[in-house]
Amino acid sequence: MKRACPTILELLAFDAVALHGSITLAAGALCLSVSAVSKQLAGLENFIGKPLLKKSGRGVSRNGRPRVSPPGSNGYPFF
Questions:
Q1: Average model confidence (pLDDT) for the chain?
Q2: Which helix (H) or strand (E) holds 47?
Q3: pTM attached to this predicted model
């Protein structure tokens, strides 16, 4: 069964990576391992259904402006 919303840990991981531009720096800021942050990002991308980050060299950046509407929201943007 598909869940109704992403977890807070997934959103925090995405926010930290977008802010720092690096999974390693985000992991340090969140006091998590790099693999834990990567797992949270994978879960969020799985929930959204599309990649949210673009990998470039040793860093990452947001993949455009993802706009997703949750079910029953009448098109109100979720991200």
A1: 81
A2: helix 34-48
A3: 0.73
